[in-house]
């Protein structure tokens, strides 16, 4: 009985925690030198088989626009594996978890941080789309990632379970166009609303095909990442596309209005408006693609 009471108390506390602390796993690193920290994390990921596919130097890009005092900020994309493509077809929302993002940055105190998403919100929400073995693989992957970051951190961080959110974590639109046409039009439309496409990751090249567009507006990122640097785990925004059996194509991305709702207390009014504008821009780009059929 006492164990049941403790469990109920623990669950209740987890729900009352700061949402940033629940949704993200934020590690304060022991290393003081940023370049060395990036190399350490990258090498440890490779050693654990969590292959790093890309390193996005966000701070370099923002500084090149004249913001010379922007703090160090890189994003490592990793955890690539042949299994990922099959998982994404079953649960496209997991494209926010896989490939994984490690945000490496200098906090306001000057300390270096490595932040990753807590996999549980996405995994619990869409658990019924995956087999027991597939869910275990995702958890194992993130446990390895969190474990190696713990080994480099001032203090360990634990993955926190939460109850499933009622809202969908992504928004999807079905477009009655072929996959190749949608990819071409989507890139043009996103660029046209200044949500610039930095890269297109073709996660699955056999039918049903699946791609992730890494898209961002650096002026938005500059403001948001200074205030809530943990959001870099979802930046650049991942807009995904995949084929349906009937020849149509789905376009989806993270539910930005839900993020605003969850993190409202951490955002100043102008920052919330930037999130809203980013959502409007992506929606406009998708409408342009959908209107082309």
Automatic annotation (TrEMBL):
Coiled coil residues, start to end: none
Top-level lineage group: Bacteria
Official protein name in the record: DUF302 domain-containing protein
InterPro entries in alphabetical order: DUF302 (IPR005180), TT1751-like_sf (IPR035923)
SUPFAM superfamilies, A to Z: TT1751-like
Residues of the DUF302 domain: 58-119, 206-255
Pfam families: DUF302
């Amino acid at each position: 009985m006492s164990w049941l009471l403790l469990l109920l108390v623990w669950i209740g506390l987890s729900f009352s925690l700061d949402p940033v602390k629940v949704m993200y796993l934020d590690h304060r690193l022991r290393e003081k030198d940023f370049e060395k920290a990036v190399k350490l994390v990258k090498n440890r990921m490779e050693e654990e088989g969590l292959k790093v596919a890309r390193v996005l130097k966000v701070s370099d890009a923002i500084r090149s626009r004249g913001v010379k005092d922007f703090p160090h900020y890189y994003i490592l994309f990793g955890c690539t594996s042949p299994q990922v493509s099959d998982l994404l077809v079953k649960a496209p929302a997991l494209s926010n978890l896989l490939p994984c993002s490690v945000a490496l940055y200098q906090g306001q105190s000057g300390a270096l941080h490595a932040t990753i998403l807590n996999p549980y919100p996405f995994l619990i929400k869409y658990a019924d789309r995956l087999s027991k073995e597939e869910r275990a693989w995702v958890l194992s992957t993130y446990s390895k990632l969190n474990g190696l970051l713990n080994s480099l951190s001032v203090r360990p961080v634990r993955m926190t379970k939460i109850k499933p959110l009622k809202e969908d974590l992504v928004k999807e639109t079905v477009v009655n166009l072929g996959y190749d046409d949608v990819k071409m039009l989507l890139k043009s439309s996103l660029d046209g609303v200044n949500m610039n496409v930095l890269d297109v990751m073709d996660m699955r090249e056999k039918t049903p095909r699946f791609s992730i567009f890494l898209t961002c507006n650096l002026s938005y990122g500059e403001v948001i990442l200074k205030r809530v640097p943990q959001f870099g785990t979802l930046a650049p925004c991942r807009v995904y596309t995949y084929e349906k059996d009937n020849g149509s194509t789905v376009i989806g991305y993270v539910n930005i209005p839900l993020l605003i709702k969850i993190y409202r207390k951490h955002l100043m009014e102008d920052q919330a408006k930037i999130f809203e504008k980013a959502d409007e821009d992506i929606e406009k780009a998708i409408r342009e693609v959908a209107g082309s059929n």
